[in-house]
């Protein structure tokens, strides 16, 4: 079933979704903040997703007035999403966030940011996915979270593709926090590997990271089962095990005293600082990542601190 679909944000993920849906016969318009003319000319997003041709049926625009679909996917970074929404009047009745993280200015997640600026029905698309895999048509499964289950069911039907399978939940809080918090653990996992601490240490960190993610999400009103699914455990496995993950690469760079290019967005860093500063659920990994990134502790000091925590039941 084809659908009229607008995708806002021509980063790697937004471009990949646009390619996948256009190839499947959906009527897709991709909005780019800049570079739309070049993308139309070359039929490629050479800066963000090189090597993947844009289907001829895919429209690329830099003009928001060209967006006329009833459903829009917002593939914009969390840290720019609020500002964009504050100055933009989107006409779509359904807005689907594809962002992962916590806004450093407000402490809100993407769906709450959208709800602050729009009366549209809001959903969250999240889960284990690399843009290059989606663009290449490789099998991928994601979570579609919407409080309104009827809308969620309709979105699940219209946005699922043969190689892009969507699972549905009404637990927006759990799905959204899973996508945000796994980035924190991915930074820590990258630091473990970058410091040469080994795969066994990474596995232990991932297991304890999932426990921390679950504590935080449940304390915020999410459901424990959600964190065991695609938006929690699934995304955690992906981002802690591959250098395709920007957060993982950032952790490796931190441990080695290196830096990533300035235009690389590391959402897990902002999330770690937000979570570490909050009272409530115990969050030693978020605190460790914030301390490492801010130069308040080394990998060795953090490892000693975590290994010397009081012994307790699992």
Rg, please? 19 Å
Give the overall average pLDDT. Answer: 95
Low-confidence stretches: none
Write the element-wise H/E pattern from the N-terminal end onward: EHEHEEEEHEHEHEHEHHHHHHHH
The biggest beta sheet is recorded as:
8 strands, mixed
Distance between the first and last residues' Cα: 47 Å
Oligomer: single chain
> What is the general shape?
globular
The secondary structure category is alpha/beta
The portion of residues assigned to helices is 40-55%
Binding site for sn-glycerol 3-phosphate: 100, 127, 129, 182, 235, 245-247
Active site: 182
Subcellular location: Cytoplasm
Function: Catalyzes the reduction of the glycolytic intermediate dihydroxyacetone phosphate (DHAP) to sn-glycerol 3-phosphate (G3P), the key precursor for phospholipid synthesis.
